[in-house]
Amino acid sequence: MRPILLLLLVSLAATSLGYIPVDPEYTNPDQFTDIYPTTDQAWRIAEEWQAMFNKFVLDGQESRMRGLFTKDFVYEACDGTRMGWVDYVEVGIGAPYPRTVYAARADKNHVIFKVKFDNRLQEIMITSKYPDTHIFKAEKAQGLIC
Question: Signal sequence span per UniProt (predicted)?
Answer without folding.
Answer: 1-18
